[in-house]
Amino acid sequence: MLPDWLKKRAAGVHLHPTSLPGGHGIGNLGNNAYEWIDFLADAGFSYWQMCPVGPTGFGDSPYQVFSSSAGNPYFIDLQPLISNGYLPQFEAAKLHPSSPNLVDYGTLYDSFFPILRKAYQNFMHSPQQMENEYGSIDTFEELHRDWLHPFAKYQAVKANNHLKPWWEWTNKDKNSPDSPLSQTSLHEYKFQVFLQYLFRAQWNQLHQYAKSKKIALIGDLPIYVAPDSSDTWCDRDLFQINQSGDFKAFAGVPPDYFNNEGQFWGNPLYEWEKMQSDGYNWWINRIQNQLELFEVLRIDHFRAFHDFWSIPEGSSSARFGTWEKGPGLKFWDKIKTVFPHLPFLAEDLGDISEEVRKLRTSIGLPGMAVLQFAFDGNPKNCYLPHNLSKDLVLYAGTHDNDTSCGWYQSTDEGTRSFFRRYLNIDGTAPSWDMLRLAYRSISQLVIITAQDLLSLGSEARFNTPGELQGNWNWRMTDEQFNHLRNHSTDYLREQALLADRFEADLNTHGNEKP
Questions:
Q1: Which of 338, 233, 237 has its CA nearest to residue 286?
Q2: Is 133 one of the catalytic residues?
Q3: pLDDT given at position 508
Q4: Catalytic residue among 35, 60, 295, 400, which?
Q5: 219 pairs with which residues across the strands?
Q6: How far apart are CA 280 and CA 173, in angstroms?
Q7: Active-site annotation holds for 307
Q8: Annotated catalytic residue, options 35, 60, 271, 300
Q9: Burial class (CB in 10 A: 0-12, 13-18, 19+), 505
Q10: pLDDT for residue 507
Q11: Within its chain, how far is the Cα of 72 from the centroid?
C-alpha cells in the first residue's frame, strides 16, 4: 500500500541548493532558487530533492554537519541584508567566485562569515527593519529553543576552543554543556542565533513559494549524526559515548566485493534502549523539525533500523565490526503514531537482505531503485524497469553516482551494449534516454539529477563515496541554467504529460528532443 503522498505519478529533480547558480560563490536561497522553482513547475516536475541542509564542517559534506536540526549559513542570501541597510553592496562583491561551476569552500569560509558578522553588528543596533520582514528574533529563539540553544552554545564554546572537535576541548568545556557562557562566548552565541534566524526566515519564504507553485521539497535525514556535533556534545547519553567523552563504537559497513576493508564512517552509534525508554523523543523532535522544512524525508541507510554494523573503539579497520540488532518495528510503530501519513522514503540500496525489505514493506515505506545498476546483462536484474514495483522511487542515478553520461562513458562495453539493446537506441544521448525510460516505468515517482538534464559528464559528479577530495562542490552555471530553461522546458513538460506524471492538456503539436 502506497502512502498518500505517493498516490499520484510524478517526477522530480535532485539538486542541492549549493549547486544553484549565483554571484556569491555558492548557491543560496535568493533569486536563482525562486527561478529554479519556476523552471521545475514549467517543466512538469512536482518535487525538488536535495541533500541534508545542515551546517557543514571542514569536509564540506552535508552528511557530516554540526547539528541535525540547524540550517547551513552558506544558504543565506545577502541581498535582503543589503536592501534593509545592514550591508553595503560592495560587501557582496567580495564574494565573486573564482570558478563559475565549483564552490571554493576555503575561500568562502574566510570571506563569507566576516561579512555576516558585520551585518549582525548593524542588526543589533537597529533590528526593526529586518524584524518587520522576518519577524522577531526573540520569538524565533524561543520557538526553536530545544535545538537552537544547544547548537548556538556548542558553536560558541567551539569558537572559544579554536574550532577543535568537542572531545579535544578543555575538560571543563567538554564535560559541562549546561554551564553558563562567558561574556565572549555569549556574543558568539547570539551571532549563531542570528544566522539561524536568517536561514529559517529565508527558507520559509522560499518554501511557501514552492508550495504556491505545487513543488514539494524532499529532504534527506541521515541515519547517523556527525561525531563532532551539538547532538553528541549535549545528549551523549543517547549515544554510545561515555560521560568522559570517549566513543565506545562507530558506524560503518562490512567488507564487500568493492572494498575488502569495509567502510569506517566514524559516526557514533545510538543507545537504542535509552531512546526507547523516553519514547524516541529525540527522533520525533528531529523529524518534526525537518518536516517544517520539507514535505518528504529520505531516510538514509534505512537498513540500520533492522541491523547495523558496529565497529569497536580502537579497531584499525571496519573488518573488525559485528552486526547488531536495530530497533526495528518498535521504533517505526511509535513514529507512525506521530506521523501517520508516513512522509518518508527509505534508502535501501546495496546489499540488502530480504528481512530489511520486509521491514520496509511492513511499515509501508517506499524504497529506491537506480537505473545505472540495471544493465548487467541479466534480464532478471531487479532494477530493470520491467522488474520494478510502484513503491520504488526510481533514479537514473543518485548524488552518490556518476552522471548518466559519465556512467555510460566509463562503464564496460558489455553494459553499454545491453543498455543500447534494451532501449533500442544508439547511445548518443544517454541522459535523455535514461529520463525517457524512467518516466515510462511503473514507479510512481522518478527523480532525475540536474546534471543529467544538462547532459554533463563525470566532471559534474557531486560525490564519489570513499574519496576525500573533490566532492560537494559542483555548481550549475548561469549559462547552463538559461540553456536548460530555453531549450528543454517544453520537451520535459511533454514527457511528463505523456507518462502521466503531470496533469495538464496534452500538447498535440509535440516537441522535439532537446
A1: 338
A2: no
A3: 41
A4: 400
A5: 297
A6: 27
A7: no
A8: 300
A9: exposed
A10: 47
A11: 11
How do residues 426-465 score in pLDDT, each as one tens digit? 999 999 999 999 999 999 999 999 999 999 999 999 999 8
What DSSP state is assigned to residue 350?
S
Q: Tell me the C-alpha distance between 76 and 203, whole Å.
A: 9
HSE of 355, CA atoms in CB hemisphere, 13 A? 10
Identify the DSSP state of 181: P
pLDDT tens digits, one per residue of 315-334: 999 999 999 999 999 999 99
Query: Which residues are paired to 322 by β-bridges?
Result: 310
**Residue 362 dihedral angles phi and psi, to the nearest 5°:** -70, -30
Sequence-distant (≥ 6) Cβ neighbours of residue 75 within 8 angstroms: 17, 18, 27, 28, 29, 53, 199, 202, 203
- Of 347, 348, 433, 452, the catalytic one is 347
Give the span between the Cα atoms of 80 and 128, in whole angstroms.
14
CA dist 57 and 50 (Å) reads: 18
Residue 220's DSSP bridge partners are 298
- Grid-cell match 520494478, residue found: 388
Among candidates 148, 233, 133, 235, which has minimal Cα distance to 190? 148
User: Look-up: residue for cell 562490512?
Assistant: 254
The amino acid that residue 120 corresponds to is Y
Amino acid at residue number 242 = N
pLDDT at 95: 86
Cα dihedral sign, 372-377-380-384? positive
The alpha carbon of 38 is separated from its chain's Cα centroid by a whole number of angstroms, namely 21
Going from the first residue of the chain to its last (514 residues), give the mean pLDDT of each consecutive group of 10, the final group possibly shorter.
Answer: 95 99 92 98 99 96 98 98 95 84 94 97 97 98 98 98 97 92 94 99 99 99 98 97 94 84 94 98 98 99 98 95 98 98 96 94 98 98 98 98 98 98 98 99 99 98 91 97 98 98 64 52
218 in Cβ contact with 47 (< 8 Å): yes
- Sequence-distant (≥ 6) Cβ neighbours of residue 333 within 8 angstroms: none
Give the CA diameter of the chain. 72
Distance CA 246, CA 324 (A): 20
Please check whether residue 383 is in contact with residue 373, taking contact to mean a CB–CB distance below 8 angstroms.
yes
4-404+418-426+433-499 CATH = 3.20.20.80
Q: pLDDT value at position 509?
A: 46
C-beta neighbour count of 468 within 10 angstroms: 8
Convert the pLDDT of each residue in 346-402 to its tens digit.
999 988 899 999 999 999 999 999 999 999 999 999 999 999 999 999 999 999 999
CB atoms within 10 A of CB 132: 10
Q: Which residues in 287-378 belong to E strands, given as ranges?
A: 296-299, 307-312, 322-325, 344-346, 367-370
Enter the C-alpha cell of residue 393.
Answer: 522511487
Rounded Cα gap, residues 177 and 321, in angstroms: 31
Q: Catalytic site residue 400?
A: yes
